Amino acid sequence: AATLREAAEATGRFMGTAIADGRLSDGTYTGIASSEFSSVTAENVMKWDAIQPSQGQYNFAAADRLMDFAAANDQQVWGHTLVWHSQLPSWVANGGFNADQLDQVIQDHINNVAGRYAGEIAYWDVVNEVFNDDGSLRQSVFLNTLGEDYIADAFHYAEAADPSAKLCINDYSTEHTGAKSDALYQRVSQLLSEGVPIDCVGFQSHLILDQYSASDIQANLQRFADLGLEVVITELDVRMDMPADQAKLDRQAQQYRDVIGACVAVTGCTGVTVWGFGDADSWVPGTFPGQGAALPWDDNYQPKPAYTGIMEGF
Ligand code: XIL
Q1: Which residue from 8, 167, 240, 309 has the highest number of Cβ atoms inside 10 Å of its Cβ?
Q2: Cα angle 206-113-201, degrees, rounded to a multiple of 5
Q3: What is the CA radius of gyration of the chain?
Q4: What is the tally of helices (H) and strands (E) in the chain?
Q5: Ligand 1 pocket, 224 CB below 6 A?
Q6: Which of 19, 41, 233, 275 to mutate to test the pocket of ligand 1 (most atoms within 8 A of CB)?
Q7: 43 Cα: distance to centroid of ligand 1 (angstroms)
């Protein structure tokens, strides 16, 4: 294969990237984004604070730009994300809504956002990061006001707003087995038994260099796939302590290869998305001080060993 998207396509899978709206005017960036990837996820512009910053006031311009970019480049769009405690405007987080009011706020948001793009979005992260690391449900305005039913309700609202999108639950530190993954497994099983329209599970996979087990990831993806759901690696990156060196970059390449391989070994694992492709655009240095070099292209958009690792993983 000449590109990652071709390598993925040869196995019947998609290869995606998060897209930073601010980079769409850079030809080097858009050249790689369009040629190497068959799926795009909005890194920020479909989040609640970006798309409905005050009640009833929607900013669709940047999200529309991503939709147009995807259409021009024959790419699917992964919608990210409808209900999340973070990047949530304070009019929702601190709005003092009672349960009926907040339920209506969520329904309106999903209707307007998922409804606008109905038929054009392949997958939606309906809920994002609803768990704590110990597997309990995360405290948020949603849980605290509505109780755990807000999760099922969000899926029903999304199904009504866009019946053709596949509807996913997405989280981090769930790619390996463990308490958080077990809680996700129980939750998803329960939602399915209640007839909640859930189609897929997203495993963010913000990994740390040398901290992974490909066989454990594969087994974990497989148990979710065995529930009849699609499983997807949705936000892959592999960060390392800076500075990077050749030995670390080579181990990173192996790690990317092994994680892609874990997906390819699971029939129900239908694609992989990296959380950006060039190190200069990565969220990692700003979020994890002292760490970086997490993506398959370097600061100058030159492919790293990790690029070849992904290619060989498919
Ligand atoms: C991150 C973006 O990459 C940053 O630009 C932003 O400042 C914060 O959010 N899990 C998610 C993503 O689901 O939305 C987050 O994206 C990274 C962690």
Answers
A1: 8
A2: 35
A3: 19
A4: 13, 10
A5: no
A6: 275
A7: 6
Q: With CA atoms as reference, report the closest residue to 253 among 296, 191, 222, 285.
A: 296
**What confidence score (pLDDT) does residue 211 get?**
98
- 3-state secondary structure at position 205: coil
d(C-alpha 207, C-alpha 223), whole Å: 20
Nearest CA residue ID for atom 5, ligand 1 = 283
Ranges of residues in the chain whose predicted pLDDT is under 70: none
- In the reported structure, the alpha carbon of residue 194 is separated from the centroid of ligand 1 by a whole-number distance in angstroms of 31
CB 29 within 8 A of CB 17: no
Instruction: Report CA(18)–ligand 1 centroid distance (Å).
Output: 10
For the chain, domains (ranges, CATH) are 4-313 (3.20.20.80)
Q: What is the pLDDT of residues 188-217, one digit of tens each?
A: 999 999 999 999 999 999 999 999 999 999
**pLDDT number for residue 83:** 99
Is 235 an active-site residue? Answer: yes
Complex prediction ipTM: 0.99
Q: Render pLDDT for 242-268 as a digit per residue (tens, 0 to 9).
A: 999 999 999 999 999 999 999 999 999
User: H or E segment at 82?
Assistant: strand 76-84
301 with 28: CB under 8 angstroms?
Answer: yes
Which atom of ligand 1 approaches the CA of 276 most closely?
Answer: 3
Supply the pLDDT for residue 58: 98
pLDDT of residue 201: 99
Model pLDDT, residue 97: 98
Task: Supply the residue whose CA is at minimum distance from atom 16 of ligand 1.
Answer: 43
Q: Which residue has the tokens 């492919």?
A: 303
